[in-house]
């Protein structure tokens, strides 16, 4: 039975404990009709309600396999879009706060990527020579662009494999929006740095000469995650001086010098697995978002493992942080009352080609 939508105003000032109780009560009413997916960066007071957790690749697989009527995504906007694209038409993807975006994803837009494609065609035939590869941290219309232009999606856990797939089809790659993931993945494949050119979308021809475009194997979009740019080589140097036996693990969205100075690089899921699988009494410096690092430190301390955050300043994913217990309680209560709020719908003309690019990725990884 459907009732009038419950306004968020009544939840805005809800005490945290009350929000927790109301989340539990609404969950009980919804039962198996709703599944809550939680990204590893999600704040603790929301993460604890997730039925399934993971990195972007794992969560997209889980979304495609779920049977629930409502997929409640505690993550950011592009993740809920992927859930909508990969789920069945009758399933409903919901993002508890529509303001939970990804600032890196916003650094590439369809208009700018189309302009780049047009400008590149003055030097070479992009449809013959360039595979467009979009990091999953991007809007659905960019995934659709890749689907329509022989391209593919990648995540932080499969980027080198996806580059390999891309080079089997065409000799060059246009990689957006994260230059750091693209550069590190290209480096892992043995591509020299001087064959990876930066495309600045605010400059004509990306700021590149025709010669630079012809030489580049990978054209890297000038995008980045500000959360991961807080880590500095000095943080690693200080740690190594104090704890020569310590190990350093970072996310590939970190700058190249951080990746080079780390012992391990991996997606959020890989970081967690690597630290959990390590021998007891080991010490770790971790270069990724603070919620993940704090949770991991708690989970492994009984084995004598010490997990430290890489930066001396706090760096959280402030947009994902917007999904708080109040928004989750509001969303679930509305769903339990029969009101769908904050539904994420990718229009069919974008969803179909975006699915092509995502399915290429799932098949290749
Ligand atoms: P993962 O796929 O490694 O979880 O990364 C997602 C993300 O947004 C990292 O900033
Ligand atoms: Fe986007 Fe950075 Fe947040 Fe990841 S940590 S979701 S890349 S803003």
Topology overview:
Elements (H helix, E strand, L loop, with lengths): L8 H4 L3 H15 L3 E6 L4 H4 L4 E3 L1 H10 L4 E5 L2 H10 L5 E3 L15 H11 L5 H4 E6 L4 H9 L3 E3 L4 H11 L2 E5 L2 H10 L7 E4 L10 H6 L2 E4 L11 H10 L4 E4 L5 H6 L2 E2 L2 H10 L5 E5 L2 H11 L5 E4 L15 H12 L11 H17 L1
Parallel strand pairs: 1-2, 1-3, 3-4, 5-6, 5-7, 7-9, 8-9, 10-11, 10-12, 12-13
Number of E strands = 13
What is the string of helix and strand elements?
HHEHEHEHEHHEHEHEHEHEHEHEHEHEHH
| Cofactors, ions and other ligands in the entry | 1,3-dihydroxyacetonephosphate, iron/sulfur cluster
Gap between N and C termini, in Å?
42 Å
Radius of gyration: 21 Å
Report strand order across the widest sheet: 6-5-7-9-8
What is the average per-residue confidence, as pLDDT, rounded to a whole number?
A: 96
Low-confidence stretches: none
**What would the principal axes of the Cα set say about the shape?**
globular
Essential attributes:
single chain, 365 residues, alpha/beta, five-stranded parallel sheet, four-stranded parallel sheet, binds 1,3-dihydroxyacetonephosphate, binds iron/sulfur cluster
Task: Describe what you observe in this structure.
The protein contains 17 helices and 13 strands. The protein is of the alpha/beta class. The strands form 3 sheets. A 5-stranded parallel sheet has the order 6-5-7-9-8, sandwiched between helices. The protein has a 4-stranded parallel sheet with strand order 2-1-3-4, with helices on both faces. The termini are far apart. 50% of the residues are buried. Bound molecules: 1,3-dihydroxyacetonephosphate (13P) and iron/sulfur cluster. Residues 40, 55-56, 137, 155-156, 225, 253, 267-268 line the site of 1,3-dihydroxyacetonephosphate.
